[in-house]
Amino acid sequence: MFAVGNWKMNLTLEEALGLASGVVSQVSELGLGAESTLQVGIAPPFPYLHAVGTLLEGSGVELVAQDCHAETKGAFMSWVSAPMLRSVGVRRVIVGHSERRKHGGDDDTRVRAKLEAALAAGLGVILCVGESLEEREAGRQAEVVGTQLRAALTGLSVEQWAETVIAYEPLWAIGTGKTASPEQAGEMHTQIIGQILPELLPAGVDAPFVLYGGSVKPANIDALAAIDGVGGVLVGGASLEANSFGRIAQGCAPGGGGVSNDARSE
Fold first, then answer.
1. What does each C-alpha distance from 10 to 41, 49, 233, 236, 250 come to in angstroms?
2. Where do the domains of the chain lie?
3. What is the pLDDT of residues 18-29, one digit of tens each?
4. CATH level 3 topology of 2-265
5. Residues 97, 99, 131, 135: which is the catalytic one?
């Protein structure tokens, strides 16, 4: 399973380094490493990536970026390219997050371009998909998520699929305190893994991790991690405190309330 903390636009540099140190301490006994079935990552704001990445070296915690531009370089003031991220030690980048789709103009075409740019630069990706409350109430969640997945993932190579993680984040559960019920989350993860991804995956390729995101916290991690098809979590506000995120990572670890790595493709 995979637990990723998305710090969004929070913290000073001093606070970010303190939090990163605390995360490393919290997860140090969870057996991270090449043979582990648990992966942990944190996504600091852009200005802190190099400093936090230096602190994470040798810890097993992945350095993740919150976004990237689709171009490798050019007159795109304030943007950051995938090769730039790679050069400061980033391992993976989030694309398609609902806040980028809503506030940054990231439609399906732009999300696909960013995904391709990240993969071309040698980065893994976490592709975010999810429906609004209105779409959920209209019963269109599978249609909306399916459209987002097909737009972003159609035609990927075997090698590119190996570097791809999906995060299902119902927009109505992000930052609201609401969490999809186990039945709602399980139904969508089952549809993604059992119905949508088989259309897109090359023959013989296992489904990637499908994370759940949306008001994940220590109080609900065991229930979320135990849902069939949930391969981990993308955590917002609860990742801004080391003990909180450590408990969430523990819930994703073998024997910590979560499911095994193999369950992502069941």
1. 17, 13, 19, 11, 24
2. 2-265
3. 999 999 999 998
4. TIM Barrel (3.20.20)
5. 97
